[in-house]
């Protein structure tokens, strides 16, 4: 029957044992941790991974909704990592923009969340459509979800790579200007080179 195959999940996830799991929480990887350490290539368990940046307003608005997902799907794993600190992983999995959500089965990316409406309901629908696992119905975004573990408040800081790039560009422009023959007559002590 064609209708049954349309409703079949695309990813067959092995659900975690709820008695062994304990508290269901989102785990945020720090700069020294590698995503591949947390994904088991020899299993069929599923993990939803969020690539975010703390200074992105879209990441901040998604945070409380993503924070609530472990309660809605306690049999799945949820990880988040700062894409600016894990640039090699961002490149490896093609996450050119943030926030970006990938569903992994074992260590293999299986699906990407591609909706602009990033709410708990659209995330639940995405997970259900991909895995066939139904969310707990009583889960909603709470005040605690706004507080963490994923930050819902933008962090302000210095983008050192951007600052270095601007300094390099300014230095190059100054060097090129000084080396240009037509500008030398403006620099004191360089007048004697342009005598006619």
TrEMBL record:
InterPro entries: Thioredoxin-like_sf, Thioredoxin_domain, TXNDC15. Residues 2-132 form the Thioredoxin domain. It comes from the Eukaryota. Pfam families: Thioredoxin. One of its GO terms (cellular component) is cilium. Keywords: Membrane, Transmembrane, Transmembrane helix. PROSITE patterns: THIOREDOXIN_2. The chain crosses the membrane at residues 160-178. GO terms for biological process: cilium assembly. This is TXD15 protein. It comes from Anhinga anhinga.
């Amino acid at each position: 029957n064609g209708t049954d195959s349309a409703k079949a999940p695309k990813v067959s996830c092995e659900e975690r044992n709820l008695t062994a799991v304990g508290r269901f929480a989102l785990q945020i990887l720090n700069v020294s941790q590698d995503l591949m350490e947390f994904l088991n290539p020899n299993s069929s368990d599923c993990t939803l991974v969020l690539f975010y940046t703390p200074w992105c307003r879209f990441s901040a608005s998604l945070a409380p909704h993503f924070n609530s997902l472990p309660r809605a799907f306690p049999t799945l794993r949820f990880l988040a990592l700062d894409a600016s600190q894990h640039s090699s992983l961002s490149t490896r999995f093609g996450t050119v923009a943030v926030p970006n959500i990938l569903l992994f089965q074992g260590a293999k990316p299986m699906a990407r969340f591609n909706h602009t409406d990033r709410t708990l309901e659209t995330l639940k629908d995405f997970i259900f459509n991909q895995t066939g696992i139904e969310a707990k119905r009583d889960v909603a975004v709470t005040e605690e979800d706004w507080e963490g573990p994923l930050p819902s408040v933008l962090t302000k800081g210095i983008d050192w790579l951007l600052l270095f790039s601007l300094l390099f560009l300014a230095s190059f422009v100054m060097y090129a200007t000084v080396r240009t023959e037509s500008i030398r007559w403006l620099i004191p002590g360089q007048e004697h080179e342009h005598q006619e």
